[in-house]
Target: Amidase
Amino acid sequence: MEWSFQTAEELLAALRSGAVTSVELTEEAIARIERDDKVINAICVRDFDRARAAAHRADETRARGEDRPLLGVPVTVKESYNVAGLPTTWGLPPHRDYLPSEDAVQVTRLKSAGAVILGKTNVPLGLQDIQSFNEIYGTTTNPWDHGRTSGGSSGGSAAALACGFGALSIGSDLAGSLRTPAHFCGVYAHKPTLGLVATRGMVPPSEPAFPTELDLAVAGPMARTARDLALLLDVMAGPDPLTRGVAHRLALPPARHERLGDFRVLVIDEHPLIPTGAAVRAGVDRVAAALVGSGARVERHSPLLPDLTEAATLYMQLLISGSVARFPVESDEQLRAHVAGLSADDRSLDSARLRAMVFSHRDWLEANNLREVHRHGWRQLFAEFDAVVCPITPTPAFPHDHDPDPMGRRVDIDGAEYPYFDQLVWAGLATMPGLPATAVPTGRSPEGLPIGVQLIGPMFEDRTPLRLAELLERKIGGFEAPK
Model:
């Protein structure tokens, strides 16, 4: 029997019954990677010797009658997480030889749960792109069309799952970095509520792995089913033991509903700043039809929805000001002169990004205060609705675009071009206020490319969009292996 595309739940059941061993699962995964990853280039750092040793230990542990949540299951880890003895580069050439000495807290949790780590997955330069390519490791291709991107920045993880390279993966999300690759590759991902999952050790190379609380960015699970997402989130969730973990224990509330027909859902597919392509709109409509057909309350408009233009602008301000603080621009004086020359009437997202590059601390505090206004708006919305269904990006996976000037790139939406980074407005809808969002496959485009949507839920009620994702998977189907 071939195990590579079985769910993590199915693998655990087979391991517990003795139908397969972790060594057998691991060897099959390694053989598949060695055979198929030459074209995909998802696994940028292989750790096969230690994976084999971990699989042996998992089988010995099970033989003693012990069990753990992921005991013996092969998994992968995004390159940006520290794994002791393996390079953490974030695709940055000056750090190609950096080897951390300690595991990230999420890697520790994977190992404690008994997972077998096969290796690390590819990322873009500095995790700063919607694609996954860099000078050190090269380009990760889309398993459905090798001429297209797998997404970013967790593109290697999404491609690995689509190809059967392990049952689970962990990634991160600041600008849709979990959800966009899942959408492009036809798998599942969950962006947790901001602060739900500890991120220590998911840090740029050579920086100290302090337990800082990140703004916007989260660590999260990726899988081939919604139930596997929930399984992995249970392993990942919880405060850092070095900080709030000394006093706090996690107790997520249950999903608001168990039946699809009981959900109250707001469905939106139009954004004032960028159109939604026909293929993605069809994916949203498919989910809406499944909800209506199951008896759910579905609305297409609500005055409770926070202003989308203001939300997108605010997201860009917080995103870009934070990114520039971490990765400074070289021509600061020239940039400030450029910003000073912008018209006061220019409220485009390009201008918002440029202005954010020279934000003062006062500017950031004003944006942060406005974010709290939006968070309160979402609380009011989720008193009337249980989830919001919307796009992740306006299009399916697009062709590789390695133009060294990202600001000059364009995304093609049904024959019309738009600024490359404007497509982030849908991802930012959940990221800016820190809401949980689950990416779910909804079928394929006329060209055969995967299409996904996101299910946004109330803050710290992550089990609600995850449960909705599971119910929708039963209704409309889920992951399909690339042909």
